[in-house]
User: Fold this.
Amino acid sequence: MRRAIFPGSFDPLTNGHLDIIKRSSPLFDEIIVAVLNNPEKNPMFTVEERCRMIEEVLPQVETDDCDLIVDSFSGLTADFAKRTGSSAIVRGIRAVSDYEYELRMALMNRRLEPEIETVFLMAAEEYSYVSSNLMKQVFTLGGRVEGLIPALVEAKMREKLAA
Ligand code: PNS
Assistant:
């Protein structure tokens, strides 16, 4: 059983995240989309809201034999990976600018849990500039983000802004 976690804040989920989940699915039997519980960062969506949104959107992702699961965690990613019996941590790299941060995290996670490998996948070019923060900023200022985030996520962002 090859299990991996795909950790992140997912505040909110973008089409770039979905692209990475799809690309990683042939490599594993099970992928846990691991949502970081980070209330101190003042996220737009609570961890429960993020998990629910991801659960609703994941059926759109075509996978052959890979089960997709959503879970949340607090504390260290490496601990969560170990606790869930995962052999890999999946991360997406969009551009060279991501590399340094990702390398530092991967090396630290390896130091913490030497048995767990970080697997980097390249996001599709059309999502190479898409980040949750950019999507929130553009959307909040009235810009168009369709095609870059799932429609359901966009609707939830609209609800949040209206509230
Ligand atoms: O995609 P994001 O939002 O940049 O994800 C960052 C995330 C959640 C993977 C990273 O912040 C993380 O792993 N946080 C948990 C705490 C931890 O393990 N820190 C040490 C990483 S080496």
Observations:
- Residues 96-112 form the longest helix (17 residues).
